[in-house]
Amino acid sequence: ASGGEQRYFLPIAVDWETRDHDPMERYGAFTIVRVRHKERVGIFYAALANPDFARDVARAMGGNRETALGDGRLRFCSTARFAQHAGAIDEEVRTPALEQTNTAVFFGNKLFLKGYRRMRLGVNPELEMGRFLTEVSPFPHIAPVLGALEYLSPTEAEPVTLAVLQRFVENQGDLWTVVLEHLGRLLAMPSMPADAHAPAETVAAAFHLNRMALLGRRVGEMHRALCHASGEAAFDPEPIMAEDFAAWKAAVEKDLEATFALLQGALGGMPESARPLATALIEARATLGERLRAIAPPAGPVMKTRYHGDLHLGQVLVAQDDFIIVDFEGEPERSLEERRAKGSVLRDVAGMLRSFSYAAHAALVRREPGAAADAGARELAEWQASARHFFLEGYCKASQGVASVPADRAGFDATLELFLIEKALYELRYEIANRPDWLEIPVRGLMELTKQ
After folding, report:
1. Run of H or E including 448
2. Terminal-residue alpha carbon distance, the chain
3. Above 70 in pLDDT, residue 374?
4. N or C, which end of the chain is more exposed by having fewer CB within 10 Å?
5. For residues 337 and 361, what is the distance between their CA atoms, to the nearest angstrom?
6. Is the dihedral of CA 45, 49, 55, 57 positive or negative?
7. Residues 106-132: what's their mean pLDDT?
8. Residue 63: which of 52, 74, 71 has the closest Cα?
9. Chain mean position to CA 39
10. Pairwise CA distance, residues 76 & 82, whole Å
């Protein structure tokens, strides 16, 4: 509608039908169109579903090859970690037919190849961040980057990232799923009076909340690794200037205006249960604006660095008794330039805290049919408060002395509040457009921020 142009990367292969071979049986889920050439019949299909093609791509990365493609070039490259995992390319290749924004290829349970469909000019943050945290400032709690495929255009200064090869990390699922299972068990336990003291074992919290502290620790360690000065201009820390902080505040104030205009317009069509809360938030708009304007930059020097950019429970894998942080692409709605920009690492902290709110609400939605409207609400509120406390405790211990984290608690809290407001406003716009039934989560989050 805007007249803009989008480009997509889709390697295509052809497979012909024979008396003994029906290509639809093998590549049916990846078929683009049937083709005919004279008496031959076959299909065009997405080539990454072909194990031989996927292996060739991975091997070309290991060989650091370049090949012409039209007027441009394909550049295959590898990191120092490639050689020790090269043997896994011969493992069984699996390409799940999933409805996702990227193409996933697994080599046994050893390697993971991700093909990016949408072509965006500039290095994909997942490759850039992964390479930095793999080779330059090693952070062990990620899936290491082993190789990449890029397209170089003769008319553009920057490459386009087409695919990234990573070591596959054995895991027990993502933390979002694990947390929801824990909260489901929490809600299934008999309700206790508000003033009762739960026995230690029912603070099944104990083990679980210790894991929240470990999660905070891992995020703090990641921010420490990203604050490493290596001489790479794209990653070297830079001071947060007064104008940087002012620009962040101005952007959030602009978000506030746009979000409340959307909320006011959506009031009539939203679920009945959410309307009183949304109305209360609209009435509290002035208070929220005052709180936002009152936020002052932290005292003393603080550095801006690269950060994850889309951190939440779903971006953390549970690996044994530890965590692996994945998916460094950043928020997909933002431009590559925005996703690669340096900023405050507390945006990641705000994203994780907001994710706790979403987990509590999702657990409430998944209760047994027929449960009372407020059943489990107190337990979930207590869990959320405790998870927040332990996460921040672990984070602050791990990030002590890190130049990108405000050293004074008042400055830390104020900066975090700014990005909590920013994140909740983003969530509110998203839910208005996509999931009106979930409006209550960001609305409650913003209401809490008006009362702190």
Report:
1. helix 440-451
2. 43
3. no
4. N
5. 33
6. positive
7. 94
8. 74
9. 49
10. 12
Alpha helical stretches, state H, 399-438: 409-434
pLDDT at residue 288 is higher than 60: yes
The pLDDT > 70 percentage for the chain reads: 94
Q: What are phi and psi of 305, to 5 degrees?
A: -140, 180
pLDDT digits (tens, 9 = 90+) for 163-197: 999 999 999 999 999 999 999 888 887 665 555 55
Are the beta carbons of 270 and 308 closer than 8 angstroms?
no
- Cβ–Cβ < 8 Å for 280, 299: no
How far apart CA 231 and CA 246 sit, in angstroms, is: 27
278 is written with which tokens?
A: 């949304």
Task: Please give the Cα distance from 409 to 365 (Å, whole number).
Answer: 35
Distance separating alpha carbons of residues 292 and 368, to the nearest angstrom? 39
CB 318 within 8 A of CB 178: yes
Helix axes 285-294, 440-451, angle to 10 degrees: 60
Measured distance CA(385)–CA(389) in Å, rounded: 6
Q: List alpha helices for 189-315, DSSP H.
A: 205-226, 242-266, 275-283, 285-294
Q: Provide the pLDDT for residue 151.
A: 97
Is residue 107 within 8 A of residue 113, CB to CB? The reply is yes
Would you say how long the chain is, in residues? 452
Residue 286, pLDDT > 70, answer: yes
Report CA 77 to chain centroid distance, whole Å.
25
Q: What is the mean pLDDT of residues 233-254?
A: 96
What integer best gives the mean pLDDT of the chain? 91
Distance CA 119, CA 156 (A): 13
- Cα–Cα distance, 237 to 239 (Å, whole number): 7
Range 16-21 average pLDDT? 94
Q: Under DSSP, is residue 33 helix (H, G, I), strand (E, B) or coil? A: strand
- pLDDT tens, residue by residue, 87-104: 999 999 999 877 678 899
> Residue 438: what pLDDT?
87
- CA dist 304 and 313 (Å) reads 24
Q: Tell me how far CA of residue 202 lies from CA of 108, 124, 215, 302, in angstroms.
A: 39, 45, 21, 41
What per-residue confidence (pLDDT) applies to 203?
45
Whole-number Å distance between alpha carbons of 416 and 28: 49
pLDDT of 370 over the 90 cut? no
Q: Which of 165, 172, 174 is nearest to 143 (CA)?
A: 165
DSSP for 269-283, please give it.
GS-TTTHHHHHHHHH
